[in-house]
Amino acid sequence: MSSTRKDPCKANACRIQACLKENNYQEHKCVEVLEQMRQCCLKWHKQSICCSGIDLHKNYITGNKSDKQSPKAEEKSS
């Protein structure tokens, strides 16, 4: 990703940090924000450095793992 381009998921990453700080780093209180980040990363994982630590399989609201292959796994199998 070019340094002149804006990271498409950076705003979501900042919202996660703010939510965690406001809630004494209790992740369960920020599941909606985490899920919004996952949705962003599902779309932009190739362009966003912020997505490196996001589990694309995990729905943060339900806690369930999806059966769908991750985009990285799909790339390897192609």
UniProtKB/TrEMBL annotation:
This is Cx9C motif-containing protein 4. It comes from Drosophila lebanonensis (Fruit fly). Disulfide bonds join C9-C40, C19-C30, C41-C51. It is found in: Mitochondrion. PROSITE patterns: CHCH (PS51808). The keyword Mitochondrion applies. The lineage of its organism: Eukaryota, Metazoa, Ecdysozoa, Arthropoda, Hexapoda. Belongs to the CMC4 family. Pfam families: CMC4.
